[in-house]
Design a protein that fits this description.
- This protein is an alpha/beta fold.
- It has two domains: about 15-35 and about 250-455, Alpha-beta prism (UDP-n-acetylglucosamine1-carboxyvinyl-transferase, Chain), CATH 3.65.10; about 35-250, Enolpyruvate transferase domain (UDP-n-acetylglucosamine1-carboxyvinyl-transferase, Chain), CATH 3.65.10.10.
- It is about 25% helix and about 25% strand.
- The strands form seven sheets. The chain has a four-stranded mixed β-sheet.
- Strand 20, helix 9 and strand 21 (about 350-355) form a beta-alpha-beta unit.
- Helix 4 runs parallel beside helix 5.
- The radius of gyration is 21 Å and the shape is globular.
- Shikimate-3-phosphate (S3P) binds near residues 187 and 209.
Amino acid sequence: MNQTPHPFAPSAAPRGLISARSSGLFGTAHVPGDKSISHRALMLSALAPGRTVIHGLLEGEDVLRTARAMIAMGAVIAPPDRAGGTWSVTGNAAGLRNPRTTVYLGNSGTSARLLMGLTGGFGIQATFTGDASLQKRPMGRVIKPLSLMGVQFEATSGDRLPLRVIGQPQLRAIDYTLPVASAQVKSAILLAGLRAGGVTTVTEPDPTRDHTERMLRGFGVTISRDVQADGSVIAAIEGGQRLVTPGTLFVPGDPSSAAFLTVAALITPHSEVTIANVLMNTLRTGLYDTLIEMGGDITFTNQRAQGGEDVADIVVRHSALKGVSVPESRVASMIDEFPILGIAAACAEGETRMTGLAELRVKESDRLAAIATGLAACGVDVTAGDSDLTVRGTGNPPAGGATIATHLDHRIGMSFLMLGLVTAAPVAIDAAETIATSFPNFAALLNSLGARITETV
Ligand code: S3P
């Protein structure tokens, strides 16, 4: 019998996957819930006094790390008792309590950075750590503003995890301008701002995803978001506000996961795929704008608002793509999509130029290096600079035939499996378990549409 694993079950043993040429992808698919919204749904409902029911939560490893962390700090979180059911979270209105042991956050940067802001304003102490990838990622960008607010930190290796957060019962409000475009840093400051005396502001020169702001409003918090004449955005939150339980939350499908299916259908001849119920927040949809500019046949149907966010169904047909230059102003709205754009660019005719990509160096892996090395191994003409990437496609599928190192990076693994749909020789990835952080049923879903992804022997 085909049993759905329990959401808190340990992940499967490491394994490689290989993707062979497909004769076309067809059908309608639902991708798992949005990762960013799922993290925030668990965190905010754990701070609210009553019971919140969450529909469509992503049951990926990263989100389950946040769930376990909130349980360790006093929330009551019940997974669904059957596949496709709802999650329920009962917050602890009295606040958070000290977790008894070190909180392990696996691969999840969003858990780490948002939880530092969330816990910093409670008089508790918590030690956070993560896997080898997360331990390499810079945390100074959150430590700096949170320290200005009064949170204390103890670290053993500079600004890297493991880190001990020594929270304070009351924080100082700050006005902070983000030196790098980061929704995680912005969110950490806004969550700490809930516990500060006075109004905390965060100015973003390059606007990033605003799910924290939208969801806080859903929990009854007043938070402003003002777009300035120069395009920068200022978010402001007054401390001391109490969250009100919204009752029910809906998590739409993740556009960053739908991106793999979208590019797969565009590059694989004969394909026609519909991806239902996908988040369409314009601060997340830069990849779709880019693919349409490349000549992609992508249409959005059934556009509607749901739970404070815009959603739509995406219809994608195989298309002849051409290279484009991606405007730097669009980078923040597609920050997680450059690995899969690299695959689309490798199948397009002409040069695709991507600049302003310094942040890709500090994601789950050094994505700029991983994309460039992987594409070159598959026979693609690619050049990488410190913060830019140029891919020159011929309009025909590249050779393939390589095994790509994922470096504990789910999006690198999924992207190169999509290249294998069209290459002459199959493309393999060395370790696929990391895919479960954001898209646990990835291979099964793609295969149900016509992909040929199997385990390596
Ligand atoms: C996220 C913000 C982005 C993104 C990450 C999720 C979030 O990170 O890359 O996958 O949920 O706030 P940065 O804040 O580092 O840009």
